[in-house]
Write a structure and sequence with these properties.
The complex is a heterodimer of chains A (about 350) and B (about 170).
Chain A: E1 18-19, E2 23-24, H1 28-32, H2 37-44, E3 56-60, E4 65-69, E5 72-76, E6 82-83, H3 93-103, H4 112-116, E7 119-121, E8 127-137, E9 140-153, H5 162-169, E10 179-183, H6 189-202, E11 214-218, E12 226-227, E13 230-231, E14 239-243, H7 247-258, E15 262-265, H8 271-281, E16 286-292, H9 296-300, H10 303-310, E17 316-321, E18 328-335, E19 341-344
Parallel strand pairs in A: 10-16, 10-17, 11-14, 11-15, 15-16
Antiparallel strand pairs in A: 1-2, 3-4, 3-9, 4-5, 5-6, 7-8, 8-9, 12-13, 17-18, 18-19
Chain B: H1 2-46, H2 52-62, H3 65-79, H4 84-95, H5 103-110, H6 121-168
Helix pairs in contact in B: 1-2, 1-6, 2-3, 3-4
Chain lengths: ~350, ~170
Amino acid sequence: MSLHYTFHPINSNPEPKRQGKGTVSQTQDNLSHWLGEKLANILLQVQGITFKDIEEIRLRIDRPFLLLGNHKEVFIDEQGSAVPPEKGYRIRREDILQALERMTQSSLYAAEEEMKQGFITLPGGHRVGITGEAILKQGQVQTLKHISALNIRVAKAVEGKAEHILPKLLSRDGSLYHTLILSPPRAGKTTLLRDLIRKISDGSPALHTRGQTVGVVDERRELAGMWQGIPAYDLGYRTDILDGCPKRMGINMLIRSMSPQVIAVDELGHPEDVEAVLDALRTGVKILSTAHASNLEEALSRPTLRVLFEAGVFERVVVLSRRHGPGTVEEVIVLHQEQECHRGKVREG
Amino acid sequence: MIWAGAFLLIIGCGCLGLYRAARIRKRPAELRECLTALALLDTEIYWGSTPLPEAFAILRERTDGVWSVFFAELSERLQKGEGANSAWNATIDHQLPHFCLKFGDWQVIKDVGKGLGRSDRQEQHKHIELVKQQISLVKEQATQSSEKQAHMWSYLGFLGGIAGVLFLI
């Protein structure tokens, strides 16, 4: 059984709700309750970085408390002030343990399966990367112990990005081309994917498209940020979400049970994922996915992704970067079955 | 009037003795219930990977009386975000007057909270097994001594009342 977050955090609502168009509110309370008392207090009085700009909170034992966001790094002291690294508040082992205790509802054992992958996902889709001493059994990571660092990646939903990309990804009859979104980490591919899913699912009068049934396999629980069966993020009226299920199983399950027109998955990369995608193509569904790579060449150099490109699966590739902040669309590449690439720059809206 | 007063004194002291005897008899029962609850907790953690707030909510349903109230409070504390060890200790401190257990019993039971939820399933299983063994020993001793002590207090109450009457007369 995986973690079921059934509690209302102290001083806060369960998770941020969408506030108008464009953003998901990110308050200090929402994030600070995942930390121990000491760190929570520091975070609540933090200066030197606007809270909504925080993208990562880095906790490393015996290293200074570090916040990242908006193209800058800010080391924080005990009073929450921005200081040089050597004067920053030194994270103690107890801080890490308390944070883990809160993130796992005092049930580290219940997060064992997720920890094998090196991260756990919090309600709202915030992902917490974990490093420590890997315990191996028959060559496989069994668990992590002596946890030494946490990286809280704050999930943000900046809507509206899909608006000007979607027309490039739709055929004349309004159906989606098989699409892959490429970007390095923290460049906004999950955010864009989420936005595209919602747009495709709801349909767009401006684009004269009707809503399509979308099946989402949210293996890492980032896309929908499910909480007690209810997604924290709006993925559209016609979206069915399979939460926490491996892609290789989830894709087939959705096709069999929910008859989707589009299957959306995050972070393709495992050989088994590739097999599942190839299998899904034979059923007539459209694939919308993401992968880690800075550009098409890098993606082609990854053996698992190369199989998909060689099979001529993808018809459109969207490349993102952080050049003008997360979610900068570098290019939308039109791929033909014969592997010819026609590149066209897309203006930033 | 004197005889009525004497009668009341004997009955009053006798009831106190019987109350004390009943509390002594309850102690092994409460320890037995604690062992059952820990076995259930172990199952939920080891086989179900059930998170602690949920596991304690299940224990609340599966136990009776004082332990049910104990686990209800514990589950609530964890749902509010309190750490497992501090929640366990705080619940003990709060619920302690409602139990018939001795100070030494609580010292052993407090060990459950140490490291609770902070390691993998295997470690949790070992930890709970160890505490269960200690509580089993305490329970054996309590069972052996409780019947004798309960008998003693049953008689002692009435005899104390009679002694008081004789002294006053």
